[in-house]
């Protein structure tokens, strides 16, 4: 806790940011007051001051017998053509596919990361993921994803960067269950080739490039994925329905 602000404001700021980032999705209850008091090391009276402001700001509502429930927020981002917020590789792959390897590092702020994230994080986790079709035992991957995650998001979700298993679970599952919205932008890239010390990815003559921005309740994404999906193995199907019927 800093001494420049009252404790209840520090609690408010922390919970507000965690809600915006999607750690506590809309409709879900916050941890109990007892758990939160223990977490922040404060009295129940101090905690309730922070809770009161969150209620006044329309972030949560207190329901007797249910606790403090996060209010779903309407997003202002452009709507995606994919209606189900799920892992896009598994939505578009013609075959069963599994993650083969994951590599990541810390990159400092740059023009590129500032382009990806409007709030200009001081550093991001830069990650690459290589995917393989069932039965592929070669070093040539069938799909590739570059992922960029602001460090403050890692802190918010309390992901241990020293644990590859935790990092994998966050990008493969947690972010999709926590996010409010995902925007997908499709284009085609010619013959992309990437490799590391273990694997190589060759996208072939024509490859889907799918840029995926995943949002919490905030204008800046939780993370950005750049998927490279060879057209031989992936297809995009968009379903549309009438809204005036």
Automatic annotation (TrEMBL):
Keyword field: DNA-binding, Transcription, Transcription regulation
Any Pfam family hit: GntR
Transmembrane segments: none
Highest taxon in the source lineage: Bacteria
Domain HTH gntR-type, residue spans: 5-73
CDD domains recorded: WHTH_GntR (cd07377)
MF annotations from Gene Ontology: DNA binding
InterPro entries found in the cross-reference section: Bact_HTH_transcr_reg, Tscrpt_reg_HTH_GntR, WH-like_DNA-bd_sf, WH_DNA-bd_sf
SUPFAM superfamilies reported for this sequence: Winged helix' DNA-binding domain
PANTHER family: MANNOSYL-D-GLYCERATE TRANSPORT/METABOLISM SYSTEM REPRESSOR MNGR-RELATED, MANNOSYL-D-GLYCERATE TRANSPORT_METABOLISM SYSTEM REPRESSOR MNGR-RELATED
Protein name: GntR family transcriptional regulator
């Amino acid at each position: 806790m800093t001494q420049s602000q009252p404790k209840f404001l520090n609690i408010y700021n922390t919970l507000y940011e965690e809600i915006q980032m999607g750690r506590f999705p809309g409709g879900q209850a916050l941890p109990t007051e007892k758990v939160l008091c223990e977490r922040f090391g404060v009295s129940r009276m101090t905690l309730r001051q922070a809770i009161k402001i969150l209620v006044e700001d329309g972030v949560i509502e207190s329901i007797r017998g249910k606790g403090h429930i996060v209010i779903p927020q309407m997003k202002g981002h452009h709507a995606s053509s994919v209606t189900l917020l799920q892992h896009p590789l598994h939505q578009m792959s013609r075959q069963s596919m599994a993650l083969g390897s994951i590599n990541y590092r810390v990159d400092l702020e740059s023009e590129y990361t500032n382009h990806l994230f409007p709030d200009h994080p001081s550093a991001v986790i830069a990650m690459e993921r290589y995917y393989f079709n069932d039965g592929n035992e070669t070093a040539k991957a069938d799909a590739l994803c570059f992922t960029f995650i602001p460090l403050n998001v890692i802190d918010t979700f309390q992901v241990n960067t020293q644990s590859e298993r935790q990092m994998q679970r966050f990008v493969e599952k947690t972010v999709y269950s926590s996010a409010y919205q995902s925007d997908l932008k499709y284009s085609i890239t010619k013959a992309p080739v990437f490799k590391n010390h273990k694997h190589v990815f060759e996208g072939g003559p024509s490859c889907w490039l799918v840029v995926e921005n995943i949002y919490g309740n905030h204008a800046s994404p939780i993370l950005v994925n750049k998927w490279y999906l060879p057209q031989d193995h992936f297809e995009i199907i968009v379903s549309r329905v009438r809204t005036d019927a």
